[in-house]
Amino acid sequence: MSEINKLNLISSNILEIHYWFNDDTHSMDANIQNKCEYEVLAIIKEVAKLLSIDINIETEPIGEGGLKKWLKIVLKKENKKGTITSSIVTTLIVIILTKSIEKLSEDKEMINLKKENLRLENEILYENKEMINLKNENLRLENEKLYEDKEINDLLKEKLILENEDLKQNKGEYIESIESSTYIKKRKSNFYETLEKYPKIEKISFSVVDKDKNIQAAEGFIEKKDFNNFILASDNIETFEVENAKIEIIAPVLKKQNYKWMGYYNDEVISFNMKSDEFKNSVENKEIEFINGFSIECHLIIKQKINNEGIVINYQYDVTRVNYYFKNDIPKETEEGKLYKYIKKGQENQLNLFKED
């Protein structure tokens, strides 16, 4: 039986968060609990968004045994494809919260090496036996009952089979979008970082339970000593470059000082570091006059990071080469711009020679 069908057979849609303490109490710092559950709610909402479904999240009374919190995930309406159920979403949340985190960016040389690993990890996500601990024989009997129920007519049977096949075929797309989400990675990191600082916590577990709070998918336990595996070491994301970026200069730095310039780029005001020595020297030597509407075409490096809310932001801009500057829309090519164009053309000619061979 496919792992997708196993997920479908889990009919429960209640997520249990179990905080385990190193004492015999059943109370928890309210600020810590609220912060943790704020992050879990954000993850659930993001998963629903990535799966294109609308959900409600309902809370249930808190239980003891350490401290247990239950969140019921309810679909507002059947999703368009009819293949994603609230129980599948709940099970996915458990898997996400118990899967150790990867850093936000990878060295370029490592990306290609990890493509195959990513494909294998996508398969493992649905094969996590610790999360879906249903016995093979019970699954076979339940599946037979599901399809042989006399109350389900032949048309409905066929519809269910097609929906399961559709979900199986699209599972890679679902998983890839979830696993690659920097938003989810950051929110999960926030959750474990908050708990890691709480002296009283011993471990955390997540499970899918039914309405009577019986576990339907085995608990995923994370010991406190392993919390660091879920916390991002850095919020930085891989740097990217813009080859011919155009920036309108608002405030240049006219003296030899390490201040940031200000400019208008992509419809927003930015502060940036001018790292072109040639252009800075021309400015400091008063060889370039700035007038209203003065702009540059340049090589721009943009560094990104993810903030505490999981939003990707640009936090640093560096201009490393100025190809042209414009006064009254008239371009003036710089010496470094000419040199770059010459080198680039030589490289292109070499490539064309190889192609001809």
Characterize the structure shown.
This protein is of the alpha+beta class. It contains 10 helices and 11 strands. The strands form 2 sheets. The protein has a 5-stranded antiparallel β-sheet with strand order 2-3-1-4-5. It has a 5-stranded mixed β-barrel with strand order 6-7-8-10-9. Helix 2 crosses helix 3 (86-97), helix 2 packs antiparallel against helix 8 (182-196) and helix 5 (115-126) packs across helix 7 (154-179).
Structural class: alpha+beta
Task: Compute the CA-based radius of gyration.
Answer: 28 Å
Mean pLDDT: 80
Q: In DSSP terms, counting alpha (H) and pi (I) runs of 4 or more, how many helices?
A: 10
Biggest sheet overview: 5 strands, antiparallel
What is the global morphology? elongated
Helical content stands at 25-40%
User: Gap between N and C termini, in Å?
Assistant: 53 Å
Number of strands: 11
Strand order of the largest sheet: 2-3-1-4-5
Strand content: 25-35%
SSE run: HEHEEHHHHHHEEEEEHEEEH
Low-pLDDT residue spans? 1-9, 106-115, 128-135
